[in-house]
Amino acid sequence: MASPVRSPPNCGSSSGAVMDNLLGLLRVRVIRGVNLAVRDVVSSDPYIVIKMGKQTVYDKDTFSMDDKMGDAEFDIRPLLEAIKMRLTGLPSGTVITRVMPSRRNCLAEESCIIFNEGKIIQKMYLRLRNVECGEVEIQLQWIEVPGSRGI
Question: Domain named C2: which ranges (predicted)?
Answer without folding.
Answer: 24-55, 56-79
